[in-house]
Amino acid sequence: MSSVLEMPLVASLTTRYAMPVLHDLNEADQGIVLLFLPSHARIHLETPDIAVVMPELLTFCNHSIGEIVHGAVADAVLEAFLVHLLNTPQLPALVLLNHRQPVGIISRMRDWEDYKQRLYALLKSTHSLPLVLPLTEGRA
């Protein structure tokens, strides 16, 4: 396997869920985007785990703000740029973009409640959201 993008669970984000692979922030949707940094330089054991939960995290984000949050995967060039820009050495990670600008980053695999709290805090910084997390049944 020559690229992390060829890992079956990562590849499913682009094939099954039609998430684009971005080379530059200007290629991102103009709205809110949850961008996956899969750890291109060194394949990490958590990469497939995050790939599996990313569609559910997008569903949570969509329900939280009542609008479409798009998903995307960073290629190696964009990932390296964002790691440098956001000063984060811990990959894999998810970056929330708003109008093609990074709002925040969540590094490594998290449990479901931690993801919800962190994502909600990032979404809250981009929208006028209530102070309390929305109640959700199960994972999505």
Task: Give a concise summary.
It contains 4 helices and 5 strands. With 140 residues, the chain is α/β, with parallel strands linked by helices.
What does this structure look like?
The N and C termini lie far apart (32 Å). The model has no long low-confidence stretch (mean pLDDT 87). The longest helix has 19 residues. The chain has a single domain, classed as Glutaredoxin, CATH 3.40.30. It has 140 residues and is an alpha/beta fold. Helix 2 links the parallel strand 2 and strand 3.
Task: List its salient traits.
4 helices, 5 strands, alpha/beta, single chain, five-stranded mixed beta sheet, 140 residues, Glutaredoxin, globular
**CATH fold field value:** Glutaredoxin
Oligomerization: single chain
Report strand %.
15-25%
With strands numbered from the N-terminus, the spatial order across the biggest sheet is: 1-3-2-4-5
Structural domain tally: 1
User: What does the average pLDDT come to?
Assistant: 87
Distance between the termini: 32 Å
CATH architecture title: 3-Layer(aba) Sandwich
Uncertain runs with pLDDT below 50, 5 residues or more?
none
Q: Estimate the helix proportion, in percent.
A: 25-40%
> Tally of extended strands?
5
Order of helices and strands: HEEHEHEEH
| Radius of gyration (Å) | 14 Å
